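Page 42, continued from yesterday. The earlier attempt failed because a stray header line got pasted into the input along with the sequence. Redoing it now with the clean sequence only.
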Amino acid sequence: MAQQICANRALIGKFASLLRTEPASIKGRIHRVESMSVEPRRIENQLTDKGFVPVYTTAIIEQPWDSYTEQDHATWSILFKRQREILKGRACAEFIDNQERFGMAAGQIPRFEEINALLAKTTGWQLIGVEGLLPELDFFEHLANRRFPVTWWIRRPEQIDYIAEPDMFHDLFGHVPLLLNPVFADYMAAYGRGGVKAHGVSAEALVNLTRLYWYTVEFGLIRQDGALRIYGSGIVSSKGESIHCLESDAPNRIGFDIKRIMRTRYRIDTFQKTYFVIDSFEQLMEATRPDFVPIYAELATQPAYPAAAVLETDTLIHRGSGEGWATDADA
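This time it went through. C-alpha cells are written below.
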C-alpha cells in the first residue's frame, strides 16, 4: 500500500493546478520557474510545513543522457525489471509490444532521440525533455501539438518507493509506449486540444476534464480477449495497483461512460475505489469527438459522485466489496 500511496502522491503534483477551484486561495504557495538554463535543472516539489508544494517550470531541454550516473541506470533497471515482471498477463498487449518496439530494456535509460525516431514516423509524436512539472496550459498545448513532456531526471535510490512528483520512470515507462498506438495517440492529442479549450471555459470544466484523464490515461482498464487488462500509466508504473486493480474484490469495475467519469471523484492517496473499463481505444477516441462545452454546462448543475458510488445506470462489471477503503474525502 505504501508504494501505491507514493505513486499517487506523484500524480498529485501533475494535477495540482487542474484540481484547484479557487486559484487565488493558493497564490504565493505555488512556485513557477521560467528562465532557461545552460545545464538542465532538477525541479522538484518543495516540502513545507503544509506538505509538498508544486514547483512549475516551462523550460524545454535536451535529454542530458551522458550525464546519467551508474546509479541512475541502476535505478531504471530495478524499476523496469520489477514492473515488467508484475505486468505479465496484466498489461494490455499494446503496452508490452510497444515497449519492445521502442527497445526499452533494463540495461540502461532509453535515449529520447531514439524513441522520437520511431514515434515521428509512426504517429507523429515526439518526446520533449522537461525539468519538472509544467503549468496546465503549457501541458495541454504540448499534447495538442503531439509533444509529450518527459521529466529528464529519475528518482534517487532512497525514492524508489516514494517520490512526490512524476519522474522519468513514470513518464517514460508508463506513458510513452501507448503513443505508438495510432488511436490512443490521436486521443492524447484530442485531449490536449480539449484542455486548451477547457482552460478558457471555467475551473469546473478543468475539474471535469481532469477526471477524464485520471480514469483513462492514468488509471484506465481495457477489455481484451475476454479479460480485463491495464492501460493506465498510473497503474502500470505501480506494483501494488497493478495487482489490486485486477485481482482485488474491493474496487468497483464499471463500463466506460464519459459523463459519469467527469462527475466522479477519485483517490489520490490510496488505491482507486473505482476503475472504468473501455472495450477498445476506438471507444475512447469516439468519446472525445463531441464538443465538451455543452457537457460542461450540463454537469455544472449536477453534483459530483463519490469515488465509491455505484449507480443503477452503470454498466457494472464488478461491484466492489469496499474492503480497506479509506473513509476520508475523495479528491
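Notes: The radius of gyration is 19 Å.
Reminder to self: strip header lines before submitting.
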